[in-house]
Amino acid sequence: MTEVAVFEILEPGVLTTIQDLGRYGFSQFGVPPSGALDTFSFRVANLLVGNRLEEACLEVTVMGLKLKALTEVVIAITGGDLFPTLNGEPLDMWRTHLLVKGDVVAFRGLRGGCRSYFSVSGGFAVPRIMESKSTYLAGKFGGLEGRALKRSDVLYAPDNPIPVDRLGYRFPKDWIPPLQGEAFLRVIPGPQDRHFTKKGFETFCSASYQVTRQCDRMGVRLEGPKIERRIDVEESIISEGLLPGAIQVPGDGKPIILLTESVTGGYAKIAAIISADLSKVAQLKPGDHIRFEPISIEEAHNLLKEQEGRLRNLEESLPSHRR
Amino acid sequence: MSLYRKTPFLVIGDRGLLIEFGDEISPETNQKVRAMALAIKTAAIEGIMEAVPTYRSLLVVYNPLIVSIEDLKKRLKLLEEKLPQTLFPEPKLTRLPVVYGDLYGPDFDYVAEYCHISREEVIQLHCSKPYLIYMIGFMPGYPYMGDLPEALVTPRLKTPRLSVPAGSVAISQKQTGIYPMESPGGWQIIGRTPVRLFDPEKDPPALLRMGDLVQFYSITAEEFEEWET
Asked: Are residues A172 and A211 in the same domain?
């Protein structure tokens, strides 16, 4: 397939990486999944421009990314509101836009959330490493040369015709996940919830925790009341496999939410965030407040089905749906 | 009894099941983890995205939209009942060269001092037998191996280093490991290997696999510097 240069990076911003839905099946070699943190917004960005759900997008963090179109392309921006502009004018999110050669898109600052997804029709062309285009920052592979984007990088996409039928298409406003206020994150207790006292578990479920500055693609460290551990269990456990959303509590009693660049770990996990709420975690930034609420696994699976149903409805309602 | 009589299935979130075979690090427990990982791979159950084998447990990552947790548990229990019949491939022995001490092993002298043995004895002991690879984890290609001879058992560093060079060979308690790439690390660094343990472009990407064996041997600094990978 021929590829064409679509964007030049004028400013890389705080952290911009190429991500898809991650690599699975390689954890036996110590390789974490990586991939977009807010998979809901990520997939909507792809659907809008007519891509497959898992096509590679840019994950834009906080602010500062500025890029110039090198040819005519269709794009969409979803996820956290980082105040995107087109040639200096505010640019609507959650809809498609046609850019022409020379257009400049910039992300001017945080208005809500923390991470935006920037899709281009056809998807960003980078080699697949272990079946995925996702950047794994700590491992220095995947995405564009295993690193965050930098100034003067040129991004490529397949040389496909412009999907004219997608122009002006919007994601329904009521379906956009709200980003304001304190985030309620629903969790399923375990697998080591019994390592904490009854009081410790109650603290975890009732207190408000604040996101610290130690917040990246590996995990989110929280500040708040200490979670009391039982005196007859050790601080560390024998190292075991991890999932994005697992909440580990190290010796200091302050919880850490693990994200997609973690593979194994040796701290007790009091609970894990349900899949339907992981997109909210992706939009947390330092200073934000959160609360945890335990629910049953059946409820969690139902909530996930609801969320996936919404995506499917969108997929089926789009023009030129070919399935 | 380190192996549980009945294997518990623990829930981790709404997409993970943790199958725990025992409560300590032992080859016997680890063998069960490996057998179960092999059984799951062979069974190719629809909806299982990943199986993460570690010292004493196996994390099964599933898609609840494809397979229900009840069905998954049932199928995994059936697999577990047949585990004693598992046939393992013959373990592969990999010999790895190590240059010990000096700038390659900043904690080498401390280990000798802590264990009250000579520098030569540290090398002899570390190279005295093949080690079992219990798991690959923490970072791509990092082998957790054991068990070290009792005389070499040393606790981890009190304060982890911010940066450990790629290829560093380290020990901690009864375990030994190798940092495949530069990273922070809390283990005692005793030497370095010139062999590359992880290459994302290769299939498989990691040189070593869980269940296989590693035998270290000592090389000189000159041999290390001239090593061609």
From this structure: no
